[in-house]
Design brief:
Residues 22-235 form the SusD-like N-terminal domain. By secondary structure, this protein is mostly helical. The chain is 44% helix and 6% strand.
Length: 475
């Protein structure tokens, strides 16, 4: 039985034989002197890393396990374990997410190592090396962070996150951990984990420069995408001042997607307000099929609760989050397809609107609470989503926090946030009576162990140092 890193390399080998993005020499498999020999090799390795990154996994996990979907009778077993909170260590979705994330991390480590070698050999300029390193540090941070959101325990000083695989030599064998095929890493405590994520983000920012975004560079990590990642990570890691400062820098440079352009963002016709996205081509997974089959069989429809929260007469998000078929059935509408391919869309990782919501929440949680700014951020977002919006000032911090969480639910629906927003705020999942019953459970208490997904059973068997999350057993 192989361990985590060997699984990652196995996936890399399989991917290299079937993905058109790797129709080059197999630079993604190992790091040797004869593998990455040029700038072109580094570019190919970076493209492979982005190709491996599968944020569809976290979108699926977050939406199906939350209160944003309803499971109709047309579901034939798709995602039932996630939706019913009956997932176990052998759950397929969790395992795919784990291994997809770590193979992306493995690829980023290979590129980082090779970039340093080529810089020393004079085959890259410092500017070129900085540019590549910024991308891979940021991608490595994002993949680790998403793993933490799903498999890591809720924030505490002693809780466990996930293994952080970088190029340090933590076991003292004079070889970078991230290149070892026999590595059996341990989970680390949450404060140290966030220190490592933010260190990667700092390295990425130090190697990057603030450049104006355009349609050519939002499919690769740029300076403002890295700042967006910093804001999101800092919010989860309770570094609220840092979250505010990072959000400020993005907001000061970019506008929220306008009301008129909002729908076209979700058909990939506009990038208004998009800071970073994973581009998808015809051979890639159709993200919309998480909820609806190509023959329009509905596996999961929008929950009755979320559809009731958004006013169809005034809020443009009703017509992006939901879509009504000719037969009257409502499906999830954010990923209906583009370029003639049904349900295939680019995956939006960071949008300006999220930064307003991050700043609003952080301003309520920071020591020097700023209720005025939180209200202003809600007003700024809603004014670009709701026709003739008239803001009602909320002075009670608790009520304002409820509004921010609800606004995140509306704005970021089906983008990989709802389940984790409830988890990090120590809130339960209470599905409405219209969305649950029978085989679909209604409530998940905030202290339930199932808010932490299990470490895959294959990893537990293979890695003697890994610790399973409570509630799933260690065997």
């Amino acid at each position: 039985m192989k361990n985590l890193i060997i699984y990652s390399i196995f996936y890399l080998i399989i991917a290299s034989s079937c993905e058109s993005i790797l129709d080059v020499e197999p630079v993604d498999l190992i790091v040797e002197d004869n593998v990455f020999n040029s700038k072109e090799d580094i570019e190919s390795g970076i493209i492979a890393a982005y190709g491996f990154a599968s944020s569809e996994n976290i979108i699926e996990i977050s939406s199906l396990a939350s209160d944003d979907v309803f499971r109709p009778s047309t579901n034939r077993g798709q995602g039932v374990q996630l939706n019913s909170w009956s997932y176990i260590a052998s759950n397929t979705e969790a395992a795919e997410f784990w291994f997809n994330s770590y193979r992306t991390i493995a690829q980023a480590n290979k590129v980082l190592y090779a970039t340093d070698l080529l810089l020393k050999e004079g085959k890259l300029t410092q500017q070129e090396a900085d540019y590549y390193n910024a991308e891979m540090y940021a991608l490595r941070a994002l993949m680790h962070f998403d793993l933490y959101r799903a498999m890591g325990q809720k924030y505490s000083e002693t809780g466990l996150a996930v293994p952080y695989i970088d190029l340090e030599d933590n076991n003292g064998n004079n070889y970078p951990d991230g290149l070892e095929t026999s590595l059996q890493p341990e989970r680390i405590e949450i404060p140290l984990f966030f220190e490592k994520v933010l260190n990667d983000i700092d390295n990425a920012l130090n190697a990057s420069i603030p450049t104006q975004l355009n349609q050519q560079n939002i499919t690769r990590f740029n300076y403002f995408a890295i700042k967006s990642l910093e804001a999101r990570v800092s919010l989860y890691g309770k570094r609220y001042d840092r979250a505010i400062n990072a959000a400020n820098e993005v907001i000061n440079n970019f506008n929220i997607c306008s009301f008129n352009n909002y729908q076209s963002v979700w058909t990939d016709e506009s990038n208004d307000g998009v800071l970073f996205k994973l581009e998808r081509s015809n051979d890639d997974f159709q993200v919309g099929t998480i909820w609806t089959g190509n023959n329009l069989d509905i596996f999961f429809s929008p929950s009755y609760e979320i559809t009731s929260l958004i006013n169809p007469n005034s809020d443009i998000r009703y017509y992006t989050n939901f879509f009504t078929l000719e037969n009257g059935n409502t499906i999830i509408g954010k990923y209906l397809g583009s370029n003639g391919v049904i349900f295939l869309n680019d995956i939006k990782i960071f949008r300006v609107s999220e930064l307003y919501l991050i700043r609003a929440e952080a301003n309520l949680k920071v020591i020097n609470t700023n209720i005025d700014q939180a209200n202003a951020d809600l007003r700024a977002l809603r004014s670009q989503r709701i026709v003739q919006y008239n803001h009602s000032y909320v002075s009670d911090p608790d009520l304002l926090m409820e509004e921010i969480i609800e606004e995140r639910r509306k704005e970021l629906a089906y983008e990989g946030h709802r389940f984790f927003d409830l988890k990090r705020n120590d809130l339960p999942i209470n599905r409405s009576e219209l969305d649950c019953g029978g085989a679909v459970p209604c409530n998940l208490e905030s202290d339930d162990f199932r808010f932490n997904f299990p470490i895959p059973q294959e990893e537990v068997f293979a890695n003697k140092n890994i610790q399973q999350n409570p509630g799933y057993g260690q065997n």
